[in-house]
Amino acid sequence: MLTQEKKQRNWKPIIKQFEAVVGKNGVVKRREELITYECDGLTSYRQRPDVVVLPRTTEQVAEIVKICDRNSIPFIARGAGTGLSGGALPTEDCVLIVTALMRQILSVDLENQQVVVQPGVINNWVTQTVSGAGFYYAPDPSSQIICSIGGNVAENSGGVHCLKYGVTTNHVLGLKLVLPDGSIVDVGGQIPEMPGYDLTGVFVGSEGTLGIATEVTLKILKTAQSICVLLADFTSVEAAGAAVSDIISGGIIPAGMEMMDNLSINAVEDVVATGCYPRDAEAILLVEIDGLEVEVAANKQRIAAICKQNGARNITTASDPVQRLKLWKGRKAAFAAAGHLSPDYYVQDGVIPRTQLPYVLQEIKYLGEKYGYRIANVFHAGDGNLHPLVLYDNSIPGALEKVEELGGEILKLCVKVGGSLSGEHGIGADKRCYMPNMFSPSDLEAMQWVRAAFNPKGLANPGKIFPTPRTCGEAARAQSAKQFETVERF
Ligand SMILES: Cc1cc2nc3c(=O)[nH]c(=O)nc-3n(C[C@H](O)[C@H](O)[C@H](O)COP(=O)(O)OP(=O)(O)OC[C@H]3O[C@@H](n4cnc5c(N)ncnc54)[C@H](O)[C@@H]3O)c2cc1C
């Protein structure tokens, strides 16, 4: 049984200092209000924070962090809390610094195709702000209507349109950061290639372990002249996987290429009833192409032909925005729709070489059968980023433990075929124990040097990314030990 000694800190004087910076309304300290912050999208891990602080400016974040530094208090940045790897999970004896009030779009420079935002700005707002002028922000996680840009930066988030244009790191030009000692630094800038170390690149994807981003300069793109979405349905997952490989090896890079299997198709049709996804298909492919009209027209023909050669039954295409949205609607709602299939589900996020798709999907099916769970698959097929959704019922004793073990088997399989532990959801608390499966001790040590250089006292988001003994199966152990109870202090 997992036991932890609770440190008893006297929070009262510290809270007074926080209130002096952000006002009484900027500090959450009541037990019932803190419950909101006890987990992120990975709900199997829970820990109530001791205090939540809601700053509005870089300077306020810096002052809060300085108080944490002086008092050796661990702090964790939190955006919208939609992360799926437990990145914003509180630790014992910590302050959560939540960016929900840092939601200003600070400047829009269409000529130079840049937007500067505070980290709490919701991903989708960036495109909404510039779309009227013919621009958009490319990284579009399925959670884009709720997740924050700060969270996207920390997780290096991807989305359905990242195949051609790249994930978040390719769209962040510069950052204003509060380092773990409270100092404020600017990294990167307004031009793509700055001299010196690429600290923007180091920070993007660092999951809150190197400090807090308080301003983000984003690159926006011009909306393509022509956009077309194709939906192809297949009678086997293998055939759809082969079509994906053939499209890319044929030299076409679609803006996005997504696959859903039969379980996901039916879940989506039950919940959002697109009417477009054939319920009897074993797999569908959604392929979006963009560019000049002539180029899109030519690629549309080629992709349709490749899908047909690989056994596609029907191909539907949509060029006008309303019809395109209709084809995408089901894919965007796929995670939510999985909730319709079972009381709980566990989303895994691994990457494999595209050519391994048929083999890995078959192996995942066998693993599901071995452990006795149904697994729905909905994923970014173009870049081999899998999202198996393991369907289970958490009220059954031992289920979470088995599901975590199954999730681990899937990750090990991804690494075995030359892939990776995460495509976009990050390592967080959930997957740190698998890091040694992918990295050697010296690889991990080199990463730790970077962490120590920015975060020498280890106060910024401790316990994430890097493995510690006991980390595997932690959520299940904690649940069975019923150790989520915290002490009433206020
Ligand atoms: C239904 C659903 C669909 C999803 N689809 C996708 C998808 O398609 N692609 C994808 O990539 N992800 C997806 N996700 C996961 C999640 O939405 C992303 O990881 C997102 O970037 C998290 O943003 P957030 O604001 O919720 O961050 P949080 O969950 O609050 O935090 C995530 C991490 O970022 C750190 N952090 C937050 N703000 C800052 C900051 N200002 N400075 C430094 N660190 C910070 C936190 O400490 C934590 O480690 C999905 C999640 C859900 C629930």
Walk me through what this model shows.
The chain has 490 residues and is α+β, with helices and mostly antiparallel strands. It has four domains: 12-99 and 447-480, 2-Layer Sandwich (Uridine Diphospho-n-acetylenolpyruvylglucosamine Reductase, domain 2); 105-222, Uridine Diphospho-n-acetylenolpyruvylglucosamine Reductase, domain 3 (2-Layer Sandwich); 226-336, Alpha-Beta Plaits (2-Layer Sandwich), CATH 3.30.70.3450; 342-426, 2-Layer Sandwich (Alpha-Beta Plaits), CATH 3.30.70. It has 17 helices and 20 strands. The chain has helices spanning 12-22, 31-34, 58-70, 123-130, 149-155, 162-165, 199-203, 237-249, 262-272, 293-309, 321-332, 334-338, 357-371, 399-416, 435-438, 441-454, 474-480, and strands spanning 27-28, 51-53, 75-78, 95-98, 105-109, 114-117, 135-136, 172-178, 184-188, 212-219, 221-222, 226-234, 256-261, 283-291, 314-318, 344-347, 350-351, 375-379, 385-386, 388-392. Strands 15-12-14-13-18-20-16 form a seven-stranded antiparallel β-sheet, with helices on both faces. Strand 8 (172-178) and strand 9 (184-188) form a beta hairpin. Helix 1 (12-22) packs antiparallel against helix 3 (58-70), helix 8 packs across helix 10 (293-309) and helix 13 (357-371) packs antiparallel against helix 14. The longest helix has 18 residues, at 399-416. It binds flavin-adenine dinucleotide. Flavin-adenine dinucleotide is lined by residues 40-41, 76-84, 87-88, 99, 119, 141-143, 147-148, 150-152, 154-155, 157-159, 207-208, 212-213, 335-336, 424-425, 461.
